[in-house]
TrEMBL record:
Keyword vocabulary terms for this entry: Membrane, Peptide transport, Protein transport, Transmembrane, Transmembrane helix, Transport
Domain of life: Bacteria
PROSITE patterns: PTR2_1
Signal peptide: none
Organism per entry: Pseudoduganella danionis
Protein name, as recorded: MFS transporter
Segments crossing the lipid bilayer: 20-38, 50-69, 76-96, 102-122, 143-163, 169-188, 225-242, 248-267, 288-306, 345-365, 377-396, 408-428, 440-460, 480-503
Subcellular location: Membrane
Entry-linked NCBIfam families: yjdL_sub1_fam
Length: 517
């Protein structure tokens, strides 16, 4: 095992406590303090909008961080400097607890800093391995994901209490302190890390090959790929023109999705035209990236379900009864935000359970738990979790008093889905990415989270449309229950499509072959 791994694991544990510590109290803080100037009935919708806009930013900025690291500064330097911005963002949350603009500035800095480092720490872990010890990588990726949830568990359990008992300055200040410690620990391992240098300008880079494929002409043939990419560009412009109606975040993210989707289809239609003008290896590398992006695109519904546990599920928990519990003689009542602690503690249990029991059992009955099979199962299980939480909402809407402990079942299903999708996805993304694009490919993995949260904003905006509201009313369900079943159906449909695509996908091995001292 590389001796430098403990520094990265410890850094990640502190950073995840920092991030989830502030994220998991964000919705309760918005509802109880910052958004008091908004009418009570509109406050949950506005809190969800702020929360998911923040998450979109967090998972959008990996594009910038990955590009800077891969092309200019390397992963270590980019992580270190973005971490300092991250710390400054936490300071703003603690200082501007009662100032709307100052608080939103802090959220912006955290989104920028956290997003900038997010793909790079994962890729930095992968850089510490080569062909001689790559068999250890899965264990470390699992340990990496385990420590994320170790930090998340204690943050989810403690920060709601600190918010209630000591106020937002302390509750947001403690995560800031943990982020400063994370940055210091990461710096301590500087001389022990394997530092893969940034890629030099490459005429066979992904963007160069894609541009050549789109623009290349062939006698007697049109350029259908360029037309498709152009249609995407026009759609992006039209999306930006809708900013006054949709809001900047929805318009800009939709424009980005259209550019990537139609541009990728266009490149795939004409990719063979780049052969001869670029190396065969470069052309096949672009083909591999496009195939990976299809997988990432089908993961987005999972993220739209998963991230709402910190918004929609908290809103639901606020309407449920919280019984008096006793643990070793200590009596306490669960706060709605503390239910999120169920997720990381289950992750820490399920990762070893899967490796020790579930996956060997699957192999024993002749089913190989390939990464894509695991991810497909995870999407389906997350959909099932939302069916359960939707049924709970129907009971609440009918006037029944339900214990908050009933949320344990959907949390268990969603967490099993998370382990199968997210932990597996980190390994899949690194192993499938060409050597010169590790950071950028992992950035696209995180961009899938942005798109997943975009679906949430679009659906929430759609519910406000009079025609949609009338349709929901005719169904006999409340808007929140209708949305729950809608998201579940969306994820189940994509899980079926994912299973079909997984059968056609051929795995590759892109761990580095050389040893770097």
């Amino acid at each position: 095992m590389p001796r430098q791994i403990p520094y990265i694991i410890a850094n990640e544990g502190c950073e995840r406590f920092s991030f989830y510590g502030m994220r998991n109290i964000l919705t309760p803080f918005l509802l109880s303090t910052l958004l008091l100037f908004i009418p009570l009935g509109d406050r949950p919708a506005e809190a969800k909008h702020v929360f998911h806009t923040f998450v979109i930013g967090v998972y959008f900025f990996p594009l910038l961080g990955g590009w800077l690291a891969d092309r200019y500064f390397g992963k270590y330097n980019t992580v270190f400097w973005f971490s300092l911005i991250y710390v400054a963002g936490h300071a703003c949350l603690a200082i501007f607890e009662d100032n709307l603009n100052g608080f939103y500035l802090g959220l912006g800095l955290i989104a920028f800093g956290s997003g900038g480092i997010k793909p790079l720490v994962v890729a930095f872990v992968g850089d510490q391995f080569d062909q001689t010890n790559k068999n250890r990588a899965k264990l470390v990726f699992d340990a990496f994901y385990w420590i994320i949830n170790f930090g998340s568990f204690f943050a989810s359990l403690l920060m709601p209490v600190f918010l209630r008992d000591y106020g937002p300055a302390v509750a947001f200040g403690i995560p800031g302190l943990l982020m400063a410690i994370a940055t210091f620990v990461f710096w301590l391992g500087k001389r022990k890390y394997v530092h893969v240098p940034p890629a030099k300008p490459d005429p066979n880079a992904f963007s160069s090959v894609a541009r050549t494929a789109l623009l290349a002409k062939r006698d007697g043939q049109g350029r259908p790929g360029l037309m498709v990419a152009g249609a995407g560009a026009l759609g992006a412009v039209a999306s930006l023109a809708m900013t006054p109606q949709w809001g900047f975040v929805i318009a800009a993210c939709t424009a980005l999705v259209l550019l990537l989707a139609f541009g990728g289809i266009g490149v795939s239609l004409q990719l063979e035209r780049a052969r001869g003008l670029h190396t065969d290896e470069a052309v096949e590398g672009v083909r591999a990236v496009l195939r990976i992006l299809i997988v990432f695109a089908m993961i987005t519904p999972f993220w739209s379900l998963f991230d709402q546990k910190a918004s929609t599920w908290i809103v639901q928990a606020n309407t449920m009864n919280s019984p008096l519990l006793s643990l070793f003689g200590w009596e306490f009542t669960l706060l709605p935000a503390q239910m999120q602690a169920v997720n990381p503690i289950l992750v820490m249990l399920l990762i070893p359970f899967n490796n020790i029991a579930l996956f060997p059992l699957m192999r024993a009955i002749g089913i190989t738990p390939t990464p894509l099979r695991r991810m497909g199962m995870g999407i389906a299980l997350s959909a099932l979790a939302w069916v359960v939480v939707g049924l709970l909402q129907l009971q609440l809407d009918g006037g029944d008093k339900i214990s908050i402990l009933w949320q344990l079942l959907p949390y268990a299903l969603l967490t099993l889905g998370e382990v199968l999708v997210s932990a597996t996805g980190l390994e899949f993304a690194y192993s499938q990415a060409p050597a010169t694009m590790k950071g950028i490919i992992l950035s696209f993995w995180y961009l899938a989270v942005t798109v997943g949260n975009l679906w949430v904003l679009i659906v929430n905006s759609g519910v406000k449309n009079p025609a949609v509201s009338a349709h929901i009313a005719s169904s006999g369900m409340s808007p929140i229950a209708f949305q729950m079943f809608f998201f579940a159906a969306f994820a189940l449909l994509v899980a079926a499509l994912f299973a079909l695509y997984a059968m056609r996908y051929t795995m590759v091995d892109n761990y580095r072959k050389e040893t770097i001292n």
